[in-house]
Specification:
The structure holds two protein chains of two kinds. By secondary structure, chain A is an alpha/beta fold. Chain A has eight helices and 17 strands. Chain A has three domains: about 140 residues, Rossmann fold, CATH 3.40.50.620; about 55 residues, SH3 type barrels (Roll); about 80 residues, Translation factors (Elongation Factor Tu (Ef-tu), domain 3, Beta Barrel), CATH 2.40.30. Chain A is about 25% helix and about 30% strand. A six-stranded antiparallel barrel of chain A has the order 12-15-14-13-16-17. In chain A, strands 3-2-1-4-7 form a five-stranded parallel sheet, with helices on both faces. In chain A, strand 1, helix 1 and strand 2 form a beta-alpha-beta unit. In chain A, helix 4 runs antiparallel to helix 5. Helix content of chain B is about 40%, strand content about 15%. The radius of gyration of chain B is 21 Å and the shape is globular. A seven-stranded mixed sheet of chain B has the order 2-8-7-6-5-3-4, with helices on both faces. Chain B has a three-stranded antiparallel sheet with strand order 9-10-14. A two-stranded parallel ribbon of chain B has the order 1-11. In chain B, helix 2 runs parallel beside helix 8. By secondary structure, chain B is an alpha/beta fold. The chains are: A alpha/beta, B alpha/beta. At the A-B interface, strand 2, helix 3, strand 3 and helix 5 of A face helix 9, strand 13 and helix 12 of B.
Chain lengths: ~375, ~375
């Protein structure tokens, strides 16, 4: 019998083509869409096109699975998603940090709950439409290597996957360029061929996280504490509606008249202060990170070091650095050159060339 | 092996005799029942004959029967229609805890957005509501009580006559959703003592998109649709003549077969329940063993999610259901089982097998062969079972 694979389908062109290619390769494809949230709960425009988890996207998945003769199911994971991803998203902002929900979702939902579902359904593999290669390397470790289309690299949000989970994972789009994926979709008449892609946070439908935080917390009966916007020199420059609405490096929306541009330097929920200052003060060389997961290499023993390149946010150009392992799955990363706006809560992801070595969550 | 269909509470195939009865009204006798000419008259006569037949089936006057597009519309028209009529004078509703969403959601809407007070009539562990509890909830401000006759998830047959006794004493209107009951057990509006009753065609081998609402003579409702005098202005829209004819025919057949089907399904269901319990440990029947529409068998398998059982069975060619499906097709924990006091783990592990006319012992034996290894495999992987 053919090996069965549960394909995570968002309703976009990438996962559609991933399902199609695996079918062509002879896998027993089962399509599945993870229902992660309801519009009722997250607010925003229910009729907005092309969003994952919208009914139209589910219909797209359904029609494509029918076309490639694969069963299709919608898996309700909204409860786990709310507990693991959304509640963390809110509490991180409240703690003055800037979370990355996609990382948590990949680590705890896609490569955990979804993978468990695959096992339950008797599938040997799961597959996604990421542009990357999953392969075994010379350390006998499963690794994620950037796909041929490096402009589509999403490895930044994949660092939390365990070795066991990776060993079950297929990413059939690794060898393809985005335009080739679209061509395949067109050739086979897939209805998602021309679909626009969305790269924002899926449950913040209007890409306005402040609106989301306000509405979500209002529903839970929680409020935000107003406080002062304070200059680095100690002078109070203005008021804010809650520290949760700020992120390090932010310039716009401070509502302060000042002769020089001001940027958020630090967020202090304990004292209710948002600290602002010059752009130059945002540059730092060093960070520590926690909850480190190693992918392509075995876990580093404490105090040993290695040369890496590191990314501190999704759109960051990887920069050379020296990584030193600390006890308890922590690391210190010292960049060769100062980097702008190192932000607690975001991920720091380590690379060697195009191979994902591992990652962690920035603490300071 | 041909796929096995054990989801007859969701829908049924249209019986060949029903198709045959409908065909003329889809092809040659296509007139608009409101037209004056011969084509129209022919259609109108068919519509009224269907109405007479269905009315006789539930023991009401033809003038008390209104055609709708199905169970959901009938339920909505009953709940919203009476509430809108009484608004300002009677601003209170009572609905059963285990109602279909077609009753619950309009009631919740009236409560949240239109200022109606809403009380939920609780049920016991088998899904039965108590007349005494109802008596405590009903006041002279109550516009409507709505409690379903036979439950779609568990098959529990509610003692509607005992409940309507309470409302009749206080002069409060009573609606019952008889979508799952009609055609499976006797539905007599006078015996039940109801003022409104919803029924549908597609659960009893009739066409989808057909249904009716019984509205007792003298009961006033505000329509939901406007734009014509069809159905005495209570439900405007060109009549679905073929659908009405199909619905009548489906009920006629169901009536003839009722006793025989009831006996067959009781035997099959008892066999199935006993065998499952013999072969698999930690299984519970949700709902009562008797006072249940027999084709409905709702089982909880401790420690595993119904969703995983459902999908695994589907891959073996066995179609059943878990909880109630929302628009997306994702399964959600059943509000019916939660209302019956089931622990949420048991409610999560619930699976409904609903038999139909095509169900055979051989099919059930096939399920009995496939089910135990699936349950065992899922339990071995489950962090919730036996740890």
């Amino acid at each position: 019998m053919n090996k069965k694979v549960l394909v995570a389908m968002s309703g976009g062109v990438d996962s559609s083509v991933a399902a199609l290619l695996l079918k062509e390769q002879g896998y027993g494809v089962v399509g599945a869409h993870m229902k992660l949230w309801d519009y009722v709960d997250i607010g925003g425009d229910i009729y907005k096109d092309g969003r994952c988890c919208s009914l139209d996207s589910i219909t797209d998945c359904r029609m494509i699975c029918d076309k490639i003769d694969a069963p299709f199911y919608v898996l309700n994971m909204s409860e786990q998603f709310r507990k693991t991803v959304i509640e963390n998203f809110v509490s991180e902002y409240r703690a003055g940090r800037t979370p990355n929900p996609c990382v948590l979702c990949n680590t705890n939902i896609k490569w955990a709950a979804f993978l468990q579902k695959a096992r339950e359904l008797g599938c040997e593999h799961i597959a996604t439409g990421h542009y990357a290669f999953v392969e075994k390397n010379r350390h006998n470790r499963w690794q994620i290597r950037q796909g041929v289309d490096s402009s589509r690299d999403q490895s930044y949000v994949l660092w939390g996957i365990t070795q066991e989970a990776l060993s079950m994972t297929l990413m059939p789009l690794g060898p393809l360029q985005k335009h080739e994926v679209r061509e395949i979709a067109r050739k086979y008449g897939l209805r998602t061929a021309e679909k626009k892609e969305s790269r924002e946070i899926c449950f913040v439908a209007d890409d306005n996280y402040r609106r989301f935080l306000r509405e979500w917390e209002e529903k839970q009966g929680r409020t935000f504490k107003k406080g002062d916007i304070v200059h680095e020199d100690g002078s109070v420059l203005g008021k804010h509606e809650g520290t949760a609405f700020y992120t390090i490096g932010q310039r716009r929306g401070l509502g302060i008249a000042h002769p020089t541009p001001l940027y958020v330097q630090d967020i202090k929920p304990a004292t209710g202060q948002v600290i602002v200052g010059d752009n130059s003060a945002l540059y730092k060389r060093e960070l520590t990170a926690s909850k480190v997961n190693w992918v392509a290499v075995p876990p580093l023993s404490p105090n040993s070091s290695m040369n890496i390149t590191a990314k501190i946010r999704y759109q960051h150009q990887p920069a050379p650095a020296i990584l030193t392992a600390l006890p308890d799955n922590n690391v210190r990363v010292v960049f060769h050159e100062k980097q702008r706006a190192i932000t607690p809560g975001q991920s720091v992801v380590f690379y060697e060339d195009d191979v994902l070595l591992g990652g962690g969550i920035i603490e300071q | 092996m041909e796929p096995i269909y054990l989801d007859n509470n969701a829908t049924t195939p249209v019986a060949p005799e029903v198709v045959e009865a409908m065909l003329p009204y889809l092809t040659t006798k296509y007139g608009n029942a409101s037209s004056v000419h011969s084509f129209g008259r022919e259609a109108k006569v068919a519509l009224e004959q269907a109405r007479e037949q269905i009315a006789a089936f539930i023991n009401c006057e033809p003038s008390e029967l209104y055609f709708t597009s199905g169970g959901t519309e009938s339920d909505n028209l009953a709940v919203l229609g009476t509430a809108y009529h009484y608004r300002g004078r009677r601003d209170h509703l009572v609905v059963g805890a285990t109602e279909h969403h077609a009753v619950l959601e309009p009631a919740e809407y009236l409560h949240c957005d239109e200022g109606f007070a809403l009380d939920i009539l609780p049920v016991d562990g088998d899904g039965f509501a108590s007349p005494d509890t109802l008596a405590e909830l009903v006041t002279d401000k109550t516009a409507l009580v709505s409690v379903m006759y036979a439950n779609n998830e568990t098959g529990t047959i509610q003692d509607i006559a005992a409940l309507t006794k309470v409302t009749r004493e206080t002069g409060v209107l009573f609606h019952t959703d008889a979508v799952q009951a009609t055609g499976k057990i006797t539905v007599d509006v006078k015996e039940l003592g109801v003022d409104l009753l919803s029924l549908t065609g597609h659960k009893i081998y009739g066409p989808k998109g057909t249904g009716a609402l019984f509205i007792r003579q003298g009961v006033k409702i505000t329509p939901l649709f406007y734009g014509g005098s069809h159905e005495k202005k209570r439900r405007p829209g060109t009549e679905n003549v073929a659908g009405a004819v199909g619905l009548a025919k489906a009920l006629e057949i169901a009536g003839k077969r009722m006793e025989q089907d009831f006996a067959t399904h009781t035997e099959l269901a008892n066999y199935f329940i006993d065998e499952v319990m013999k072969r698999i440990p930690d299984v519970h029947l949700n709902g009562p063993r008797t006072n249940r529409i027999p084709p409905t068998v709702n089982l909880s398998f401790t420690g595993i999610e119904g969703e995983s059982i459902l999908l695994s069975l589907d891959m073996e060619g066995i179609a059943c259901s878990s909880g109630s499906a929302c628009t997306s097709g994702a399964t959600e924990p059943s509000h019916v089982l939660i209302a019956m006091g089931k622990k949420s783990v048991d409610a999560q592990g619930a699976i409904r097998f609903s038999m139909g006319r095509s169900t055979t012992k051989e099919q059930l034996d096939y399920v009995l062969e496939k089910l135990p290894p699936i349950i065992q495999r899922l339990r071995e992987m489950s962090p919730m079972y036996g740890r």
